[in-house]
Write a structure and sequence with these properties.
Elements (H helix, E strand, L loop, with lengths): L2 H14 L8 H4 L1 H6 L1 H5 L13 E7 L2 E8 L8 E5 L10 H7 L5 E4 L16 H16 L4 E6 L1 H9 L7 E7 L6 H8 L6 H14 L21 E7 L11 H14 L6 E7 L6 H4 L1 H18 L1
Parallel strand pairs: 3-4, 3-5, 5-6, 6-7, 7-8
Antiparallel strand pairs: 1-2, 2-4
Length: 306
């Protein structure tokens, strides 16, 4: 991992407990976005089908502009892959694996409201309201085709919360170090109110984000893991510890994070948990081959069941 990427990962953790990845993380990835700004603003190549475009395109959804990027040719026998970045990250953060996956898949990604080139939300968002935006994106890029959702960090949590209510569309999930379903409780238990210094700042900033702070203004309450049936699911957790900046609390927080990854297996009776042994939180950056193989496996399994 180069210096800038490591710094980005450390900031993501220090501001949001092993991967909620919200506070300050849009600043840590700004150089990535700036370097590829021409790609996000490039005009898409259109066809008669609204969803069959290559490049970036903005859609108006409930009066807000949502930035979407798609690549790869649609295949009748394979679901459309929708990539979902973590909090504080725009779709450009996942451009590398999108390019790789699009060699034999139709792959799309999007900036949630408050992220990247999409509009700011007009108020506090909920899991339900951000899910409505996701539904509109899926309608536009996939039409009647099934989809596989591949989410990192907060994007993984949103995907896992969304799938049980949309079994008709979501036929597979890949959760890459998804935010724990009990993140607030984990944080309150892992860092007491009496904590001082960096740990106290970490606790306060993360709780503020989980309660609807910027950039997405998304409320992220704890909740039970609900089942999406027997769809293929791969849960990947990071293998390298990276909470050294809060040494008194890091080990307990890492254990809670691992427990959260195991809990996400409950989203399907056909789930698999693995560890990216050489990765910190950004699995698809540190070990892109691990992320790509998992997404391709789930997509192939979903296609075989169609």
């Amino acid at each position: 991992m180069n210096h800038n990427r490591r710094l980005s990962a450390v900031i993501a953790v220090s501001c949001a407990i092993a991967g909620v990845g919200l506070v300050g993380c849009e600043e840590s990835t700004k150089s990535d976005s700036d370097a590829s700004a021409t790609r996000t603003t490039a005009a898409p190549k259109e066809t008669a089908d609204e969803g069959a475009f290559t490049g970036a395109k903005k859609f108006e959804i409930d009066g807000r502009s949502v930035n979407v990027s798609c690549s790869g040719a649609p295949a009748d026998d394979r679901p459309v892959i929708v990539l979902m970045a973590g909090g504080g990250d725009g779709l450009e953060k996942m451009a590398g694996i999108q390019k790789t996956l699009s060699g034999k898949n139709r792959v799309c990604s999007y900036d949630r409201l408050g992220e990247g080139a999409s509009d700011q939300p007009d108020g506090t968002q909920t899991i339900r309201s951000t899910g409505k935006v996701l539904t509109s994106v899926i309608d536009r890029v996939a039409g009647d085709r099934p989809v596989v959702l591949a989410g990192h960090s907060l994007g993984g949590l949103i995907a896992a919360r969304y799938a049980p209510d949309h079994r008709d569309r979501v036929k597979g999930l890949v959760l890459m170090d998804a935010t724990s379903p009990t993140q607030t409780a984990d944080l309150n238990k892992g860092i007491p109110e009496s904590a001082t210094g960096p740990a106290a700042e970490l606790r306060a900033r993360t709780l503020a984000i989980l309660q609807g702070g910027k950039p997405e203004r998304l409320m992220v309450p704890d909740g039970e893991v609900r089942s999406a049936g027997d769809i293929p699911v791969e849960v990947i957790r990071h293998g390298k510890r990276y909470l050294e900046q809060v040494p008194d609390y890091g080990p307990d927080l890492e254990r809670a994070w691992s427990n959260g990854q195991r809990a996400w297996r409950g989203v399907s009776s056909r789930s698999r948990l693995s560890t990216a042994t050489e990765s910190e939180h950004y699995i698809y950056v540190d070990q892109p081959d691990v992320a790509v193989r998992a997404i391709e496996r789930v997509t192939s399994q979903a296609a075989d069941r169609a």
